[in-house]
Write a structure and sequence with these properties.
By secondary structure, the protein is mainly beta. The protein is about 10% helix and about 50% strand. Strands 6, 7, 8, 9 and 10 form a 5-stranded antiparallel β-sheet that branches. Strands 11, 12, 13, 14 and 15 form a 5-stranded antiparallel β-sheet that branches. Strands 1-26-25-24 form a 4-stranded antiparallel β-sheet, with no helix packed on it. A hairpin with a 6-residue loop joins strand 4 and strand 5.
């Protein structure tokens, strides 16, 4: 390697102008070192710093199952409201929004009226996403109950162009399956739905968000896979983070190239309930969900890679009935919505985390 004196001697021999020489040296001493210190575009963050946690909603007796999106200058958070977790409760779905994560306003509320002694429609697990860059899409799981017995599923979807005006939630065509977190990619909506016991996973897609067609069955190594979040990297790979209920209940990370019919899977060694994740760079992700820390359920955030390696988790203030996060990254800050009952009844919280 050449030293700085070698470079200066060479430039003088070439009659490099004096003023330009000074500018060049200044760039070498300042700009050059800055270029060396700057992270390459695909170098992901390697540490998580919790900046703040704020309770953003507690109106209902049981507030739960969140998701989060950024759309046209606002955060949008959606969640279920009810009396208790499940078992025949009539769940409703609310959407709130905020410009900065501090002050929130309600913008939508959905429920399916129930007549006495008839089927109860439990709206739950709402998931919000940006469809084709120009509208918000809200997918709502609907469980059907007679008394406390589950008798079927009837998921719904609704759209909004501005986040304020929403249509009536309409049924989607996806026979008796639970489409857990639909996402849009290349003008198609993709989802992994699950059903049965032990669980079966089916990858499906849709051109309009209403009619879904099967693509492939996912054969996860362990029993009873269920909740799945899928994302895409810049190389068009599909990545899936999969909760399981069998074996040691380890979550799996799966990956496939188009047409998404051949998958590889790696166990994370950690249970992750209500899983969500975002792509930081090819093969590098940040994930969140319910994990067990000292045998206690906590909402956690961690880094994850293609081989299933999970970093030491950042534990958010949480406990009891908790988790089901939504995630957004803006300007180096990771925002995580989640619910938790560590302060009594389940409420909705928002964590602000610096990616470093």
């Amino acid at each position: 390697m050449y030293s700085m004196s070698d470079i200066l001697f060479s430039l003088r021999k070439k009659n490099f102008p004096g003023r330009s020489l000074l500018i060049f040296v200044g760039l070498m001493l300042t700009g050059g070192s800055l270029l060396q210190a700057r992270k390459p575009p695909d170098t992901p963050a390697h540490s998580l710093e919790l900046l703040k946690v704020k309770k953003i909603w507690d109106w209902s007796n049981y507030n739960s199952f969140t998701d989060l999106a950024w759309f046209k200058g606002y955060f949008y958070c959606t969640f279920r409201e009810g009396r208790h977790h499940a078992g025949g409760d009539q769940g409703r779905v609310r959407v709130i929004r905020s410009r900065n994560g501090e002050k929130w306003e309600p913008v939508a509320f959905f429920e399916i009226p129930v007549k006495e002694n008839t089927v109860v429609f439990d709206m739950r697990d709402p998931k919000i996403s940006v469809a084709n860059g120009d509208s918000l899409m809200l997918n709502i799981g609907v469980a059907l109950y007679i008394g406390d017995k589950a008798v079927g599923m009837a998921p719904r979807v609704t759209y909004s162009k501005d986040g304020l005006h929403w249509g009536k939630p309409e049924p989607i065509i996806i026979h008796d399956r639970w489409p857990w977190r639909p996402v849009w990619h290349n003008k198609m909506e993709w989802v992994v739905s699950y059903w049965g016991n032990p669980g079966h996973l089916l990858l499906e897609n849709s051109e309009d968000g209403f009619v879904f067609l099967p693509v492939d069955t996912l054969h996860v190594p362990y029993n009873s896979p269920n909740e799945v979040t899928i994302r895409f990297d810049k190389y068009n790979h599909m990545i899936a983070l999969i909760r399981t209920g069998g074996g040691d209940r380890s979550a799996f990370i799966g990956k496939a190239s188009p047409p998404y019919t051949r998958w590889t899977y790696h166990a994370t060694g950690q249970y992750i309930g209500g899983p969500d994740f975002l792509v930081l760079a090819p093969g590098k992700y940040v994930c969140s969900g319910r994990m067990y820390i000292d045998k206690e359920p906590k909402t956690c955030v961690a880094f994850l890679d293609d081989k299933g390696s999970l970093s030491d988790p950042l534990v958010l203030p949480s406990g009891g009935d908790n988790s089901y996060p939504g995630m957004v990254i803006r300007k180096g800050i990771l925002w995580v919505s989640y619910y938790s009952s560590h302060e009594g009844k389940p409420n909705i919280y928002l964590a602000k985390i610096k990616l470093k």
